[in-house]
Amino acid sequence: MWLGYLIILGLVVVLFWSGSGWIGALRYSMEYRVGISQVHMNPRPTDCDWGHSPFGDKGCSYKATVTAYNSAGDVVGGDEAPTYGHDTSTGKPIVSYDSGKTWVWLSAPDTPDPKIKSVQVQWVKVTD
């Protein structure tokens, strides 16, 4: 009986850790507070998996990259999302596309709605 519990727990941990499939979609749905139907995941490539031909370590893996969009299709969250703020001296809205190193002023109509409506998950190959 304990062995069965351990096997089920191991499967849940592996599936959640891999970030693929419906468990990955559930994870991102909870993280970005959107419906699971609003999480769009590309299939995780299998060419780096140990069990695919040729068998063994391929020296690579895949990392999930997440991009979150508002209702207008503007990027407002995720791994490489722009940072929005306000200029402390003028109060004007500003945006940074390089993690706060440089800033650009926005006009009020250009300021995107920060509410996330959909999430896109893609896979990037990483050399080990």
Summed up, the helix count is 2
Portion in helices = 10-25%
Largest sheet: 4 strands, mixed
Order of helices and strands: HHEEEEEEE
Low-confidence segments, given as residue ranges, are none
- Straight-line N-to-C gap: 38 Å
What is the percentage of strand-forming residues? 25-35%
Strand order of the largest sheet: 1-7-2-3
Number of E strands:
7
- Count of distinct structural domains: 1
Integer-rounded radius of gyration? 19 Å
Instruction: Provide the structure class.
Output: alpha+beta
In quaternary terms, these chains amount to single chain
Q: Which whole number gives the mean pLDDT?
A: 84
Shape: elongated
Short description, anyone?
The protein is α+β, with helices and mostly antiparallel strands and 128 residues long.
Notes on the protein architecture:
It contains two helices and seven strands, in the order H-H-E-E-E-E-E-E-E. Helix 1 (2-18) packs across helix 2. The strands form two sheets. A four-stranded mixed sheet has the order 1-7-2-3, covered by helices on one side. A three-stranded antiparallel sheet has the order 4-5-6, with no helix packed on it. It has one domain (2-127). It is of the alpha+beta class.
